[in-house]
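Throughout our pipeline, every protein is held as a single compact record rather than as scattered files. This encoding replaces a full spatial description with a residue-level series of whole-number codes. The remainder of this section carries one protein's record, kept here as part of the documentation.
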Amino acid sequence: MKKQNIYKFLFAVSALLALGFLISFGCDVFLYDTYLTSAPLYLYAIVRAFAYLLPAALVFLVALLLRKKWK
């Protein structure tokens, strides 16, 4: 793989992680029931953000740094 394509791949991975967050949190919202669960919905959002958005942000920053370095 060429150097120029690596940062494009990392941008795509970052976008897929963000999309994964939206899909998984959307499922959490759809399946959330206030009578059966004792945890509030924002707690699910925080957990999903750590699982998906934090790695997405890190991969995005690495892609930006690589693009800046190679251009």
